[in-house]
Design brief:
The complex is a heterodimer. Chain A is mostly helical. Helix content of chain A is 85%, strand content 0%. The chains are: A mainly alpha, B alpha/beta.
């Protein structure tokens, strides 16, 4: 028992490691809170694209020594304007425009990195560096998490209605685009926070995998959000210790822990479905009669 | 793009008089063209619908039925002509107009319960940051009861049959408590029991002074359930009491001559 505690406690005796763990938990909470909406609104690609297109902004920011946040804002402005121009008037689909912009900006970021920065910087920005978190970073991360939490709680019903039925949203005077931009903004903030922890390349895992796993176990949105946060925090802690004791990179350790949770959820959901199949029969019967009636009345046949 | 007016019209208290003597919906000289298309999807359409009317909006695919509904709601930007709802722009009072959109525009897989969807009808009265109150829950209960879906309230909408889903949408419209109802092809994928319940509820609403405009492909329901039919094929083909306008000639003009030649229309026309 005492051995266990000292095993758990050992890394926590270093200030910079504790900061890293707290930062990891903050980033995982930010990502998990949004992930239900990212998954169910099909914004995984947009989230991934945002993270990748921030790279040149991060590189320029770290090169000139100002906050990553401002670098991300600069890159985001370029990306949004570019996507808006390309997909304007329905000339091309929005995901096409996102694909063009995000790969272009990511390539520019890599180019800048290889020409200007050292390989060490490249590693940190692409794959995260949980141990390089400063006190001021922690303050910023706490603010970001509070903002994202506040956004989802205060605008929960607006997020629901714009996700489910955009036409009804417009009819009640609520702009779906407004909520979409709000969500994209929250995803962008999460990216800035998470880039430090798991890096630009793997950030999409924080935004997608928690809710993907949770959605296999529950279909209630509130429960999906709560489960996502629990999964994500568990994975962060697990990944953190794995990374400390086995000397693995922190980002991939956290993401692989999340993936493992997803695989377990998948197996549990399979087993659950298999086990309850016989029990569900009587329940399904009402659905069958209903289908039969609607088929009977299908028009003009 | 998001306009500031859109941000502030959500949940805005409506101070328009309930009875104004103005038409429920008035469109004059409305034309509309989608970007990239070389023809107008609506061409100089003028329609006036009085309170209490039940209007069927009939026409082939691409006739502009959905566009007309979207324009009335302000879902599409008005390009030409004028539209008013009870004498005002629809965007100035969101309480008074409700819509059941075409099924394809709704994300049925999104995890929401029946109760949550019906509560969405109350959002227009809540606006930003306000949580549902006692009267909102009561309105939801009443709407669920009227559509006979009390027992489904905790189910996910995505699991329900097409008929049950349409009941949920009409229950949401009841909770919204609007004066003008716009229903875009609500009968698709609906069983006969649901269809009759929907028409019964709409009939009661219209007897109480509300107004319904319902687009449909089903000519068989016109005579029984509507007071008026508006045949549309980019322009108004015919408009008037169902008995007067539901003629083989009008149907042929609305749907094109091929339909007229190949099909015997009498089963439909007799209701």
């Amino acid at each position: 028992m005492a051995e266990w505690l000292s095993w758990l406690g050992e890394p926590l005796s270093y200030g910079f490691i504790v900061r890293g763990l707290i930062a990891g938990l903050l980033a995982s909470v930010a990502g998990a809170t949004l992930s239900a909406f990212v998954v169910w609104r099909g914004m995984a690609f947009a989230g991934d694209a945002i993270a990748h297109s921030f790279l040149p902004g991060f590189v320029v920011a770290s090169l000139f020594g100002f906050s990553l946040f401002f670098g991300a804002v600069g890159a985001a402005i370029v990306a949004v304007i570019g996507i808006g121009l390309i997909s304007r008037h329905g000339a091309l689909r929005e995901d096409t425009a996102i694909g063009v912009m995000f790969s272009g900006l990511f390539a520019l970021g890599i180019l800048l990195l290889s020409k200007i920065a050292s390989y060490q910087d490249l590693n940190h920005i692409l794959f995260g560096n949980i141990l390089g978190v400063s006190r001021s970073d922690l303050v910023m991360m706490t603010i970001v998490v509070a903002l994202i939490f506040g956004f989802v709680i205060l605008f929960y019903k607006e997020l629901l209605v714009t996700s489910f039925d955009p036409a009804h949203s417009v009819a009640i005077g609520l702009s779906p685009e407004l909520m979409r931009y709000g969500l994209l903004g929250a995803i962008a903030l999460t990216t800035v926070v998470g880039a430090q922890i798991v890096g630009v390349v793997l950030i999409v895992a924080l935004l997608v995998t928690p809710a993907a796993a949770a959605s296999l176990l529950s279909r209630r949105l509130g429960r999906v959000v709560a489960l996502s946060i629990a999964f994500s925090m568990t994975a962060t802690i697990a990944g953190f210790y794995v990374s400390y004791y086995l000397d693995f990179a922190s980002g991939p350790s956290i993401v692989l822990s999340l993936t493992l949770i997803f695989v377990i959820s998948w197996i549990v959901s399979r087993l659950g479905r298999f086990g309850s199949r016989r029990g569900v029969r009587s329940h399904g019967a009402t659905g069958t009669t209903d289908d039969a009636t609607s088929q009977m009345t299908s028009p003009a046949e | 793009m998001v306009r500031t007016a859109q941000v502030f019209s959500y949940g805005k208290v409506c101070d328009h008089p309930a009875i104004s003597g103005k038409p429920a919906l008035q469109m004059s000289g409305v034309s509309h063209r989608y970007p990239g298309l070389d023809h107008d999807v609506l061409d100089n359409v003028s329609v006036t619908v009085e309170p209490g009317e039940r209007v069927a909006l009939v026409g082939p695919n691409g006739a502009g039925k959905s566009t007309l509904i979207k324009l009335a709601l302000g879902l599409e930007q008005l390009q030409q002509g004028a539209i008013s709802v009870y004498g005002n722009r629809a965007s100035t009072c969101r309480h008074r107009v409700a819509v059941i959109p075409q099924r394809s525009t709704v994300d049925w897989k999104f995890p929401v319960t029946v109760e949550q969807v019906v509560m969405m009808g109350r959002y227009v009265h809540l606006g930003w940051l306000k949580r549902p109150q006692k009267q909102d829950y009561e309105a939801v209960d009443e709407a669920l009861g009227r559509m006979e879906i009390d027992s489904l309230r905790h189910r996910q909408v995505g699991e329900l049959s097409g008929g049950q889903q349409q009941r949920v949408m009409l229950a949401r419209t009841l909770a919204h408590d609007a004066d003008l109802l716009l229903l875009d092809e609500p009968l698709n994928h609906v069983d006969i029991a649901t269809q009759e319940l929907m028409f019964h509820v709409i009939e009661k609403l219209c007897e109480a002074g509300k107004t319904a405009i319902i687009s449909t492909h089903d000519l068989g329901v016109l005579k029984v359930h509507f007071s008026r039919a508006l045949f549309l094929d980019r322009r108004v083909i015919a408009d008037g009491p169902v008995e007067e306008v539901l003629t083989p000639e009008v149907v042929a003009r609305a749907y094109g001559f091929r339909f007229h030649k190949d099909k015997d229309l009498t089963p439909w026309l007799n209701g």
